[in-house]
Predict the structure.
Amino acid sequence: MDPLILASECDPAKEIICAPTNVIELFQFDEALFSIGPMDFTRTVILTFLAMFIVIGLLYFAFRTPRVVPTKFGAAMESLVLFVRDDVAKGTIGPDGIKYAPYLLSMFLFILVANLFEVTPFINFPLTSRMAIPLFLAVLTWVIFVFVGFKKNGISYLTGIIWPKSVPVALRWLVGLIEFFSTFLLRPITLAVRLFANLVAGHLMLTLLLGSGWIFMSAIGDIGIRSIIGLPWFVFGLGIFVFELVVAVLQAYIFTLLSAVYIQTSVHPEH
């Protein structure tokens, strides 16, 4: 029987690669490292707090002391803040976007740090590859833009979605039905799944390529020349490693930009 198919019969001492009994094991960190009262601190919980403290630390040390001429670190953080405030918040939502800049900035920095954990030595685990985290952020955005929509437009926010006046009368019921489900159901799901799927895919690629490549190359004493199979895998994995740095930044930006777009549709539903 192929040892890669039945993991229960896989002998790590004899086989190079053993498949887990369930692929979900690759993403589970349910075992608590320690507990404080009723709260269990798993690896995911600890990394979530770590990401939060990193974001707070970045902002605190960059802006704690006002300077006429900022340090290089302060200038870099200021450029990032201005980018989110001016290009994402105000550029997408309009003048009202300044109100949502703190939320969008906090979310962007948190997702960015959580994504970069994937390529951080000794961590190598993107927080956003756990569906609960991007889903929570997506639901938070959903709550904000739905609340803003009703607050600024009243019941016309809902009627404008269900019965869009810019669409021919014969099609309004169909477009309204699509828009209703898109706005109140699909938006948070697609927003979360987009981030989750991209980080899971990258995490798996890095794990399989770098891990398998290294295992084969380190087994040269046991399998001889066949260990060279792992070299192209490892080299390709290094290329994916660099690519994942770009993906980490890009996915944080896309999530933040789409959040701003959804808020804009509530602030200015006529657009």
Residues 54-267 form one domain. Residues 200 and 236 are 18 Å apart (CA to CA). The chain has eight helices and two strands.
